[in-house]
Amino acid sequence: MPAFFLDRHRSPNDNVRTLNIESKPVQSNPPRSMLFVSGEKVERFAKAMAAGADLVCIDLEDAVHPQRKLEARNNVLGWLKLQPRTDTGPRVALRLNGLRTAEGLRDVVALVDSGVQLDWLLLPKVEDKADIQCIAGWAGAQIGAIAALIETPLGIENARSIGRAGGKLGALMLGGADLSAELGAQFDWEGLFSARGRLVNAARAAGVQAWDVPHVDIGNLSGLSEETRKVLALGFDCKTAIHPQQIQIIHAAFAPTPADLDWAKLLVQAVPDGEFSGAFLYQGRMVDAPLVRKARRIVELSRLQ
Length: 305
Fold this sequence. Notes:
Pfam families: HpcH_HpaI. Its EC number is 4.1.3.34. Its cofactor is Mg(2+). One of its GO terms (molecular function) is magnesium ion binding. It is an enzyme of class 4 (lyase). The protein is of the alpha/beta class and about 300 residues long. It has 2 domains: about 5-25 and about 255-305, no CATH class; about 30-255, Phosphoenolpyruvate-binding domains (TIM Barrel). Helices cover about 45% and strands about 20% of the residues. It is built from 12 helices and 12 strands. An 8-stranded parallel beta barrel has the order 3-4-5-6-7-8-9-10, surrounded by 4 helices. Strand 5, helix 3 (about 100-115) and strand 6 form a beta-alpha-beta unit. Residues about 1-25 have low confidence and may be disordered.
């Protein structure tokens, strides 16, 4: 599905701004859900791919024992080499170890040498936009888009700068477990509320997606549903998951209500000539670019249910 962002052009003749909506390649088809699977568990890869998630992320970082990093790396890249590139099924992501670690550097070298093509690459513990620029320089030709995991206080402070790294950066993702530990905060809604708000604002300011941390209480599906609705209300694009049973709950939370869908369809149809070129009156109210973007997103989400 296309995603949209605001491109502000100043007229050379006056000080009036015209707002246009354009597509941005790295933001196309924003995932509602991303399912993590351990890089140690090759036997679980097929199950993860069949779970219904929009994106499956094979994890070489936290989900792999330090003594089994080499084995996991070789197995994962070997498996990825054998996967056909198709337009159906979930997209595939790979989470590396941090670039400031020896294992992270080994991951990068192995990825480049393998020639494997990835839809997304997740880079953990990003604290500076230079991290994004480095990985894009080393392996950019093999990566569709990059998601920066923001999981330290310094990362939160620098989130806006990181979001403007450019290139193939497509998303900022909250790393709640590590962040809450460093903050001395609870790993829950209240403890991470401020960080979530700051990350969404940084992502929106930069025109990239915002992804939320997984809900780690696997058995609490009602809690997952409530949290997903809350992060959507904050402006997040994607809720990540650590168990296949969480995917259906996440997607249900994304489904628009009939009233919201009716409103969105009518508004999209009312856009003059189908292309937004400036604010206009609709049913007595002024409609601007963010409102059109919201309506289009609701319509696209309804098609995925």
